[in-house]
Design a protein that fits this description.
70% of the residues lie in helices and 5% in strands. Helix 2 runs parallel beside helix 6, helix 3 runs antiparallel to helix 4 and helix 6 packs across helix 7. It starts with a strand and ends with a helix. Strand 3 and strand 4 form a beta hairpin. The protein has a two-stranded antiparallel ribbon with strand order 1-2. A two-stranded antiparallel sheet has the order 3-4. The protein has eight helices and four strands; from the N terminus they run ββαααααββααα. It folds into two domains: 83 residues, no CATH class; 91 residues. The protein is mostly helical. It is globular, with a radius of gyration of 22 Å.
Length: 219
C-alpha cells in the first residue's frame, strides 16, 4: 500500500511471526541454562572469527592501497575451490586437509599479487567508480572461471581426523574444528597486531595508509 510516494511495507507473515516467537522463546530458555548460553556464545564466536579472517584482508587492502576491492569475496571463493581441488588431488595422502591449508592461501596470494601488478596498479589514484568497475568485472570473471572449472554443484571438504571430535562444554559437545577456527583467528589477529605495531613493515603499512605520497617519496 502506498500513500503518495511513501510505500508502506506489508506486515510480517504468520510464518515469520512464529519464527520470531520461537527464537525469543529459545533465547529466553537459553538464558536460564549456563551450558546453553556458553554453547551459543562459542558458536557465534566461531562464525564471527571466520568473518574476521575474511574482513581482515579487505581492511588491509583498503587501508594500504586505497582500493575498494569488491572482488575480495571472490578471492575467498577461489581459495575455497583451490582447497577442494588440492584435497581431491591428495585424497589418498594423510593430511590432505593440512596440505590444502598451506598451499591454497599461497596460490591465492600469487594470483592476487598478479592481479595487483597487472590491473590494480593502473587505477591507483583514480576515482572509486573505476575501482568498482574493475573489481566488479573481476567478480564476474572469477565466478565464471570457477563455474567452468568445478561446475555449479555444491562442494565440500571433510574435516580432518584430528579435528573430527568434540569437547564437552558444560555438558554440551562442541566441535573441535570450531575451536580450531577460533584459535587460528585469534592467532591471525595477534600476528597482524604485532606486525602492524612492532615491525618495520607494519610501520611502512601504517605510513602508507596515512600518507601514500610521502611514503612513496621516502622510498
Amino acid at each position: 500500500m502506498a500513500f503518495g510516494t511513501l510505500a508502506v511495507p506489508p506486515g510480517p507473515t504468520l510464518s515469520s511471526r512464529m519464527f520470531m516467537l520461537l527464537s525469543v522463546s529459545s533465547f529466553t530458555s537459553c538464558l536460564s541454562d549456563p551450558g546453553c548460553l556458553v554453547f551459543q556464545l562459542l558458536g557465534g564466536l566461531s562464525v564471527a572469527m571466520v568473518l574476521f579472517l575474511i574482513a581482515s584482508g579487505l581492511t588491509l587492502i583498503f587501508g594500504v592501497l586505497g582500493i575498494v576491492n569488491f572482488a575480495h569475496g571472490s578471492m575467498y571463493m577461489m581459495g575455497a575451490f583451490s582447497s577442494y581441488w588440492i584435497v581431491s588431488q591428495f585424497a589418498d595422502t594423510w593430511g590432505s586437509f593440512w596440505i590444502a591449508l598451506v598451499l591454497a592461501p599461497l596460490l591465492v596470494a600469487l594470483i592476487g599479487g598478479a592481479i595487483e601488478v597487472v590491473l590494480l596498479r593502473r587505477i591507483y589514484g583514480r576515482p572509486q567508480f573505476h575501482q568498482f568497475l574493475l573489481t566488479f568485472g573481476l567478480i564476474l570473471i572469477i565466478a565464471d572461471v570457477m563455474r567452468m572449472s568445478f561446475g555449479g554443484e555444491f562442494k565440500s571438504i571433510g574435516r580432518p581426523e584430528l579435528l573430527s571430535g568434540s569437547v564437552s562444554v558444560l555438558g554440551r559437545p562442541f566441535p573441535e574444528y570450531n575451536i580450531f577456527l577460533i584459535a587460528v583467528a585469534l592467532g591471525v589477529a595477534v600476528g597482524m597486531w604485532l606486525m602492524l605495531q612492532r615491525s618495520r613493515l607494519g610501520r611502512t603499512i601504517r605510513a602508507a595508509a596515512s600518507d601514500r605520497e610521502m611514503t612513496s617519496a621516502l622510498g
